[in-house]
């Protein structure tokens, strides 16, 4: 049997998708990953085949640099970075304005390319990143059943009363002005309507009999997989989701790193892992404040500097490990605390390792994800643009000595996520729904003949 995985050409998207696909590979099945050239090395490390497919102009093999992007995309990326310095609402407004170019790039052409790819590969099962909207148009128009994986916070799939790009929850440290929020919601509604119109136009061009969507951001595949712990998701929102399965987390197995293993074996001080992800490591001002804060705490720090030059971090203690990239999963397994922007991979991997989080959210679904961690009492959230080194230090010290009740709750969550890994949950959910998918596809075909 053959599994086809469709992913944008971004490491942060492909890594969890490839990890999920590992459950199929372990069962002896063929795995083909359709993505762009930037992440070819990741596909090969997993031992999968790669089929060429570009879902947008941009790419990110692990650490993104604006100067490595094609013309137009480089300026858009610089604009995004600058918006994060202005605060949450300007960042979300910038992202809303760019949404159609980001998520519906050349939709008819890409959708047809996906259809040709499916014909060529002949998959028995298909898994698609939820944000690969153009690919999902092609699959929907061809009536090809697929599993839709929401890799970010579950709010990336809107439910009744929500509008995409407008956070359904905010952490306490980030409370934008109500008038600014009203304007942001109105902008997101305008973008939603225009995006949905474009989705419908592309879909009906490929399949004239297709029904019109009222909100393309609420559309999902035949199987809905949420790469997120159900324990962190509000039950009232869970009740509004279509039929789904929470995967918990999809934690990859990393290649051995001799330097990291040797560093982990040295010293007895608690380890703090610091990373702002593959995009936001450009915020050297935030990383330097984190570094200043942690220099005043009795800890060893593993810091993934990304696109920030190490010399911009200030004096680096000899006990620290600072590199451009670090094996996040490996270090989290030994860490006592993680400091992060709150990307979904960072959140779910930290929860699996049982590591509390100090979060500094900067964009997209990071605000809702940070609010969930705060509500659960498994971390603290500060304003990335305003938190002082003293405030960061205090928060870190509090999390390193978190109350026993919270520590027990985190340990129980870690145990649950570890006991049944996300890839196993994904494969089980797919097979449990397989008969229903076939029935649904037959019904659709009958209605359109």
TrEMBL record:
<protein>
    <submittedName>
        <fullName>Glycosyltransferase, MGT family</fullName>
    </submittedName>
</protein>
<dbReference type="InterPro" id="IPR002213">
    <property type="entry name" value="UDP_glucos_trans"/>
</dbReference>
<dbReference type="GO" id="GO:0008194">
    <property type="term" value="F:UDP-glycosyltransferase activity"/>
</dbReference>
<dbReference type="Pfam" id="PF00201">
    <property type="entry name" value="UDPGT"/>
</dbReference>
<dbReference type="GO" id="GO:0017000">
    <property type="term" value="P:antibiotic biosynthetic process"/>
</dbReference>
<keyword id="KW-0808">Transferase</keyword>
<dbReference type="InterPro" id="IPR050426">
    <property type="entry name" value="Glycosyltransferase_28"/>
</dbReference>
């Amino acid at each position: 049997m053959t599994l086809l995985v469709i992913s944008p050409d971004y490491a942060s998207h492909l890594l969890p998708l490839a990890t999920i696909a590992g459950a199929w590979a372990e069962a002896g099945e063929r795995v083909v990953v359709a993505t762009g050239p930037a992440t070819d090395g990741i596909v090969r490390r997993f031992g999968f085949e790669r089929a060429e497919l570009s879902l947008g102009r941009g790419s990110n093999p692990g650490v993104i640099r604006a100067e490595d992007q094609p013309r137009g995309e480089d300026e858009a990326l610089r604009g995004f970075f600058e918006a994060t310095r202005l605060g949450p609402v300007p960042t979300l407004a910038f992202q809303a304005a760019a949404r159609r170019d980001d998520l519906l790039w050349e939709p008819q052409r890409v959708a047809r390319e996906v259809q040709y790819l499916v014909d060529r590969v002949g998959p028995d099962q298909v898994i698609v990143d939820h944000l690969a909207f153009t690919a999902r148009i092609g699959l929907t128009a061809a009536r090809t059943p697929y599993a839709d994986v929401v890799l970010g916070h579950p709010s990336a799939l809107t439910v009744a009363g929500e509008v995409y790009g407008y956070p359904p929850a905010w952490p306490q440290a980030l409370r934008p002005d109500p008038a600014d929020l009203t304007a942001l919601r109105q902008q997101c509604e305008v973008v939603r309507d225009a995006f949905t119109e474009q989705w419908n136009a592309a879909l009906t061009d490929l399949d004239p009999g297709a029904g019109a969507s009222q909100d393309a951001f609420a559309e999902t595949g035949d199987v809905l997989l949420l790469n997120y712990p159900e324990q962190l998701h509000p039950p009232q929102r869970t009740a509004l989701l279509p039929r789904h399965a929470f995967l918990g987390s999809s934690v990859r197995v990393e290649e051995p790193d001799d330097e990291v293993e040797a560093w982990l074996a040295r010293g007895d001080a608690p380890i703090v892992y610091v990373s702002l992800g593959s995009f936001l490591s450009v915020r050297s001002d935030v990383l330097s404040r984190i570094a200043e804060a942690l220099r005043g705490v009795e800890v060893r720090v593993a810091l993934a500097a990304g696109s920030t030059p190490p010399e911009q971090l200030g004096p680096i203690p000899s006990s620290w490990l600072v590199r451009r990239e670090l094996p996040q999963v490996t270090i989290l397994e030994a860490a006592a605390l993680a400091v992060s922007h709150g990307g979904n991979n960072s959140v779910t991997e930290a929860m699996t390792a049982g590591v509390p989080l100090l979060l500094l959210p900067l964009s997209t679904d990071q605000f809702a994800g940070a609010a969930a961690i705060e509500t659960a009492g498994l971390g603290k959230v500060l304003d990335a643009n305003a938190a002082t080194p003293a405030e960061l230090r205090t928060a870190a010290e509090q999390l390193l000595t978190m109350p026993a009740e919270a520590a027990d709750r985190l340990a129980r969550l870690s145990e649950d996520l570890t006991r049944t890994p996300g890839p196993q949950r994904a494969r089980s959910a797919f097979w449990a729904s397989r008969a229903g998918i076939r029935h649904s596809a037959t019904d659709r075909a009958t209605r359109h003949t």
